[in-house]
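Input/output pair, single chain:
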Amino acid sequence: MKLKIQFVIKLLLGIVFYAGPTPLSAQVEPLRTSTESQEIHVTADKLTATDGGAQVEASGNVEIKRQLTTLKAEEVRVNRVTQDVEAKGKVSLDDPEWKIKSADSVRLNLDKETGEIQRGDLFIEQGHVSIMGRRLQKLGGQSYRIDDGFFTTCLCESGPAPWKFSANELHLTREGLGTITDGYFYIMDIPVLYLPYGFFPVKVERQSGFLFPKFGYSDTEGFRFQQPFFWAISKSTDASLTFDTETRARIGTIGEFRTLFDRDSDFHLNASYFNESPRTDEQGDVVDRTIADQDIPKNRWSILGTHRTTLPGDWLTYSDIAAYGDDLFTRELVERMDLTLQKQSVIRVSRFGESRFGLLRNWGDTFVKGEWNFYQDFVQPDATTLQRTPQISFWGRRFISGFPLEIRWRGEGTNYMRREGGDGLRLDLRPEVVVPFRTASHLFGSFSVAPRETLYHLYSPVKSGERNLSRELVEVRGNIGTSLNRVFEWSGLGLTRLKHVVEPELSYIFVPRADQSRIPIMDDIDRINRRNVFTLAVANRLWGRMAHRLAGLAGDRDAELLSPMGSDAVELASLRMALSYDVDKERKGGDSLTDLDLNMRFTPLPYLNFGFDGGLNPGPWNITHARVSFAVTDPRLLTRRSLDPDFNRPNSLGLSYQFLRRGVNGYLAEDANIDLDAPPNCAQHPLDPRCPGTGFNQNIVGNLAGNILYRPLDQLLLSFSSSYNVRDTRFVGARGAAKVLSSCECWAVTFSVNHSINPSKTTFNFDFNLLGLGQQKSSLN
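Output:
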């Protein structure tokens, strides 16, 4: 934290400028500089200027105020020529960013930015750094030396600090690194550890050293211990190495390397290795028997990495790597990584591990991309998984100057490979001509025609006459819509006006029938059915203009919003409905209407949100799929920020429900390895529809999820998140945590319990942090 020494001296030099050679007694009138913002108030029993105004002395209850800074002392002396200032007797300085709580004397020099504080108590607001010492010396820049001193980040109003460092010599460098010589680590004024030499970070940037270990316990894996070490190689490069052991399961290491080449180029690599020798019944821990590879090897590993680099010529190269030694690694060991709970959740339920390498270039309205994709299938055999090696794409658009015409183009060449055949090379070309139009002030739309050619070159095993195939299509699209709105005066809920917007749209798509029976199926491009469909969609939006009800907080420097209000105009609600009509199905007497698509958002207040996305079958009028969400956050103000980021978060509650009705292929969601081309194996795959009495007759998804973050006390934070399978009436997973912040706000401890299935286990974790030492991270997400 930068000491504002020059700021204090400029205050005192302001006194020199306006003081005359005549002694003044009990002066309390304000002194004004050239601008109103530089106004200085001086109070002293006696104020004297001598030596032609070069020396200024003030004594007796001296108090100097300028804006939000106040200096107090019994005696103050300023040398205008050498720019030295001395203050003695009950010296204190109060500033929003730093404070001298008390000192016997202070000597400061404006020119050299050096100074000395005798028997001082210094507090720096950022990081809550408290430094006490017999002598505090500022050495230039922002480096300090403290003799016979103490250091802590505890904010104790009375009594001993829960922890502190003492040192015969304590140095703080301008880079934010503290070093201790001949010191001790204290707990409640009791020395518990002698430190002949040590170092610690006092800035939010991370510094090299051992981080606090993590402890945990699992009912299946035993006691867990993790010891991380962090290495700050340079300002733009760092690395970490974590030793991990679980007494009944494994022993291993986790390494991470990060570097930033420039603002747009970076590299990140995370690798791990675990040896499962302590594990005795790994196959018995496998719960999901529907996956193809159920083997848990003794040696397990993972590699995760990303990079983004801009090459000369504006070519962007990128890579995202996700490779695992076995298919169960992500379900069992992803929580060992230094990832957020949200990212862990995404990886844990992922169907594939995807690695990709590519380069991208654009020329304004034209883009070219080359990419290699490799997939690791966690459910089905990798031998049947298609790999895109490589995929080359180009696309773009251009408006014809002076004419209402737009030309779009898109082409993609993909080489599909897999170990068990059924692969090949595909080239898909799709140019498009678009004619936009506006027939009235509120009526607009477009019409487009897109011929499409898809060429295949298949590898063995195929017949010689079926190696080279093609498919020709044309897509005709059109749409017309409008936008209508009306503004209403409104007073309530902190609003001054409401605006209702209605946006109806009618669209049409036509695709002729094409014979696709001979071409393979590698992704969704290979099957495009005939379409002759009209779609009607209506969007309703409700906007509100906020009243300036927070204007009174503008001058409150200690108040901060927990839930930001955003801009004056906010979207309060929206509802979009879309329904399609299939002309061909109507001609054949089939079901001509698709599901009614519903998308709704309702935000009556900035901290309250409702959402619904779903589909409604207009035939039997039942819901085919749905997702309902509700979220509320605490709108109250945060009057003091904590060093722990979790205690700066608002109270919040979130609930969601997901539903997906069963379909003809719903059983594959439960067991993707059912092979209808092979004889039924009802013992291994009981959901096979050919098995007697075991047909799949369940909805596919019916999950209720919730999370809550609640702070019942200033020093206590509770967190709980869970997912409940309503269909099977069981918990899919649950995690609860309690976090305690010390009364002096200088340490935090987190106790958490996590229950998961597949594999089924319960884990207890313990996390402890000394706040203010290095960068603080959330332990709740």
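Residues 207-375 form one domain. Residues 5-18 form the longest helix (14 residues).
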